[in-house]
Amino acid sequence: MISVDIAFKGGATQDPKSKEGLTNLMSTLLDEEAGDLDSQAYQTRLEDLSV
What we know:
Blueprint: H1 22-30, H2 39-48
């Protein structure tokens, strides 16, 4: 059996100085509506797909 553990810096730790919260804002906006789906329908679809 082989086990691999990979880690990298990401998320809020990579926000530029004076722009704290940028990653959070981006990730929040990415799941707001998609095509003809409103936010609620999009979230439901993600759950249905187990994403």
